Amino acid sequence: MDAASSTVPPAEPIVLAGVRKAFGPLQAVAGVDLRVPRGELFGLIGHNGAGKSTLFRIMLGLTDADSGRVEVAGVAVGGPQWREARRRIGYLPEQLALYESLSGRETLAFFAKLKGAPRAQIEQLLELVGLGHAAERAVRTYSKGMRQRLGLAQALLGDPQVLFLDEPTNGLDPQAIKEFYELLGALGARGTTILITSHILAELQQRVDRLAILANGKVVAQGSVQALREQLALPLTLTLRGTPELLQAAREAAGDCARALLLPEALQLHCERHRKMELLARLAPLAGRLADLEITEPSLEDLYFGVAA
Ligand SMILES: Nc1ncnc2c1ncn2[C@@H]1O[C@H](COP(=O)(O)OP(=O)(O)OP(=O)(O)O)[C@@H](O)[C@H]1O
């Protein structure tokens, strides 16, 4: 059985190797390698113009790469088996055009027809995204969160193996974002592979399995947030609270082990990861008298600025 007729998803539903795309003199995608295993929630981040949308369009077969290998859902994008494989891919663009006068149910029926997906899935998807109660209402009466959930439902028509989500949580409130990611978690647990872009790094940091940071068309770092912390070796921050005398003593005890920043009511010590235990040992004699000690890992935003800025 060949890959196109197989219903078994490949172990790596997204494989890019040496992918390049230029627009005139501009190298928008400059040699990207990416492998995303089945069931992973993978984030793609980067500055405006970094090449994220171009890469999405290449993976969806909407734009041809100039060179390189692009495989999605187990087949070469644009190749002889692509038409069939495209049905196993869902896409939620950043701005999905919806017909305001259609109801939620009619909207899904419209997309199901376009995609050749069974209409029988519509009710189930409306329930899955929490729109069962609003299925009869015109889209014009939907909130932003409801529209995004309807967008996700259309992307899920045909039970895709791979989902591409472009800024799907833009404009959603914190509760809606939480629910959106819970839904993605459930899809991942059933083996759906999800590629997601977002400019809200704090949001991605807690949720993605791995991510790639794209800058000027190149992947400049790739891995789990923790792996990137270790790879990029950005300093940890210890924040100490206590009396001014104690903070001064802590600063002296830290010595060359950390870069110290004395704030009005706290001392911040920025320390390289491999010297953390040495620093804690130096501070140990003071620990009993400190009011508080907090260790903060570099955030995804720190990591991003560490490589992409
Ligand atoms: N059709 C096109 N013709 C010419 N240049 C293009 C075209 N599409 C994209 N570009 C250029 O390629 C580069 C990458 O654009 P792309 O839209 O992929 O970036 P992005 O990372 O998605 O940015 P954003 O976060 O702003 O959406 C940009 O410099 C953009 O101007």
UniProtKB/TrEMBL annotation:
Q: Report the Pfam families cross-referenced here.
A: ABC_tran
Q: Which SMART domains match?
A: AAA
UniProt keywords (A-Z) are: ATP-binding, Cell membrane, Membrane, Nucleotide-binding, Transport
Record keywords: Nucleotide-binding included?
yes
Presence of keyword Transit peptide: no
Q: Where is the ABC transporter domain?
A: 14-241
One of the record's GO molecular function terms: ATP hydrolysis activity
Task: Give the matching PANTHER family.
Answer: ABC TRANSPORTER RELATED, ABC TRANSPORTER, ATP-BINDING PROTEIN
Task: Give the family per the record.
Answer: Belongs to the ABC transporter superfamily.
Its protein name is ABC transporter ATP-binding protein
